[in-house]
């Protein structure tokens, strides 16, 4: 869409040639005055023109028109170019400036051997946590590089690895770039891995192209040192609140997600101005970052003790986080449109504290993706919660009267455990209590619950909460950021299917058509 005013579709030359055409179309039958003839003949006599000169006039007129058109086009293009750069300048100087997540600064633990661009005494330090398989990380590379190029020696970029759960290629890609770093070629591998979407298939060719020792590269990729370095990066990120990628700490201020070049210039300019004030007050350039970190926080409140998806051994029979599982949803309570591009299937227990905790996050996700997210609930009461089985029956009984989600919410809030408590909730919601009790005790509800438990067992769900997002397994009560990252990636995959002709309402069935039907496959 454009703000350009509407204009006639004639070209410049057409607009110029219309005038003589109109004149030519006038009635030639009217006699001209005699005085006009006399005057014309006298003019010709007074200013004789050679035949050659007369003949050259049309050619000169044509070349003048061509030159005029060329000047017009060049002027128009120049106006667009100047307008673009002026617009960028205005946006950079006066547009809305990106704000960090909070005013707090965080001190990210550094190993001391991280890949770095820019000098040690730069006034602005950007620490990036990224995943080579994350499309938003890939989209962040060029805008950040462009913005940094405008500040020469005033900015440095430090890279830290944060391969996300569910990205099967991200871990090996991180090890590959770490190994390349041992031979001084990290950034070359960094760019190639983003371009290849974390595929390491061409690593041998890259090694040859860049003159690396292939044997050392291979050994380093498979070494414990590579894994230790990546794990330390992830632990450092987890402490300061990194749950998804990309995440950036700019002089300790946290910015999540990708930005365009103008936004990056605004961020850098704001931090640079503050840093320059410190230098003016007598802080040496090389000590500015450490000065800022003196009062920085070492941990974000509520941050996990370990990285999301790391340092947890999978139990036998648990689904992996890279396969697609064909989890059925027919007959299960669902909220969100049938045309949603992402289907999130939740297995939960009403008396599990982690299940209760994650409900707020799920509500926020539903509000953030109203058209693209459908949430499906399947019962998974655990044996360690004796009354959870009955709570599941109560929720299914409420569903018989069209009040599943309302009852579901009250169960998590009230933690009801007895039939009398279940009846009170039904009454609060205006349900027919006698019918509710009859359904609660019915064989039909018992069969529904048994079916949910059978599905949970088939897909290896032994703990709660557990999720399958377009068939991909996610374990535990993850943060909003972790869920959001996975959902956005699934949306991009789904849009590709829709672009190939799949109806939005058929996306989920299409995705799981070739998926695993049990966790044992």
Derived from helix and strand composition plus strand pairing, the structural class reads alpha+beta
Tell me what the CATH architecture of the largest domain is. 3-Layer(aba) Sandwich
Can you tell me the CATH class of the largest domain?
A: Alpha Beta
Instruction: Kindly report the spatial arrangement of strands forming the biggest sheet.
Output: 1-3-2-4-5
Outline the low-pLDDT stretches. Answer: 1-57
Order of helices and strands: HHHEEHEHHHHHEEHHEEHEHHHHHEEHH
Q: Main beta sheet, described?
A: 5 strands, mixed
Helix content: 40-55%
- The tally of domains stands at 3
Beta-strand percentage range: 5-15%
Q: Number of helix segments? A: 19
- The overall average pLDDT, rounded, is 85
Keywords:
521 residues; alpha+beta; Glutaredoxin; five-stranded mixed sheet; globular; disordered N terminus
Please write out the topology.
Layout: H1 12-24, H2 34-46, H3 51-94, E1 116-117, E2 124-130, H4 135-149, E3 155-161, H5 170-181, H6 186-195, H7 203-210, H8 214-221, H9 224-239, E4 247-250, E5 253-256, H10 261-280, H11 288-293, E6 334-335, E7 342-348, H12 353-368, E8 373-379, H13 388-399, H14 404-414, H15 419-428, H16 433-440, H17 443-458, E9 466-469, E10 472-475, H18 480-499, H19 507-512
Parallel strand pairs: 2-3, 7-8
Antiparallel strand pairs: 1-3, 2-4, 4-5, 6-8, 7-9, 9-10
Helix pairs in contact: 3-10, 4-10, 5-6, 5-8, 5-9, 13-14, 13-16, 13-17
């Amino acid at each position: 869409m454009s703000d350009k005013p509407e204009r006639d579709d004639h070209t410049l030359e057409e607009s110029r040639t219309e005038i003589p055409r109109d004149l030519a179309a006038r009635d030639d039958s009217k006699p001209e005055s005699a005085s006009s003839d006399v005057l014309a003949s006298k003019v010709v006599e007074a200013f004789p023109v050679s035949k050659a000169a007369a003949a050259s006039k049309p050619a000169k007129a044509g070349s003048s028109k061509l030159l005029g058109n060329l000047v017009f086009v060049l002027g128009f293009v120049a106006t667009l170019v100047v307008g673009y750069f002026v617009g960028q300048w205005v946006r950079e100087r006066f547009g809305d400036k990106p704000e960090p997540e909070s005013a707090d600064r965080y001190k990210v633990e550094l190993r001391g051997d991280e890949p770095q661009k820019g000098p040690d005494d730069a006034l602005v330090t950007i620490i990036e946590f990224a995943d080579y398989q994350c499309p938003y990380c890939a989209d962040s590379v060029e805008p950040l590089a462009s913005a940094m190029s405008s500040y020469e020696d005033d900015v440095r970029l430090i890279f830290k690895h944060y391969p996300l759960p569910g990205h099967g290629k991200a871990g090996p890609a991180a090890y590959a770039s770490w190994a390349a770093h041992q031979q001084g070629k990290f950034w070359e591998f960094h760019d190639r891995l983003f371009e290849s979407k974390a595929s390491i298939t061409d690593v041998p060719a890259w090694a040859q192209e860049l003159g690396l020792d292939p044997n050392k590269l291979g050994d380093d990729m498979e070494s414990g040192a590579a894994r230790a370095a990546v794990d330390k990066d992830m632990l450092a990120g987890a402490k300061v609140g990194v749950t998804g990628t990309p995440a950036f700490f700019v002089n300790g201020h946290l910015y999540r997600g990708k930005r365009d070049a103008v936004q990056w210039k605004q961020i850098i300019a704001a931090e640079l101005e503050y840093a320059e004030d410190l230098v003016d007050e007598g802080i040496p350039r090389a000590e500015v970052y450490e000065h800022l970190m003196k009062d920085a926080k070492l941990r974000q409140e509520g941050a996990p003790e370990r990285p999301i998806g790391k340092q947890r051994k999978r139990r036998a029979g648990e689904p992996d986080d890279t396969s697609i599982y064909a989890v059925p949803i027919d007959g299960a309570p669902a909220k969100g449109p049938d045309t949603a591009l992402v289907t999130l299937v939740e297995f939960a227990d009403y008396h599990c504290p982690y299940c209760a905790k994650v409900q707020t996050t799920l509500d926020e996700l539903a509000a953030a993706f109203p058209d693209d997210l459908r949430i499906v609930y399947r019962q998974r009461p655990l044996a360690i919660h004796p009354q959870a089985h009955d709570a599941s029956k109560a929720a299914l009984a409420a569903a018989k009267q069209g009040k599943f989600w309302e009852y579901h919410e009250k169960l998590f809030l009230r933690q009801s455990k007895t039939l009398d408590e279940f009846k009170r909730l039904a009454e609060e919601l205006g349900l027919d209590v006698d019918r509710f009790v009859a359904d609660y005790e019915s064989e039909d509800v018992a069969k529904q619950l048994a079916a949910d438990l059978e599905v949970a067992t088939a897909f290896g769900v032994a703990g709660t909460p557990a999720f399958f997002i377009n068939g991909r397994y996610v374990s535990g009560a993850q943060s909003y950021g972790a869920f959001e990252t996975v959902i956005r990636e699934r949306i991009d995959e789904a849009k590709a299917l829709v672009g190939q002709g799949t109806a939005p309402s058929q996306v989920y069935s299409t995705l799981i058509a070739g998926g695993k039907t049990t966790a044992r496959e």
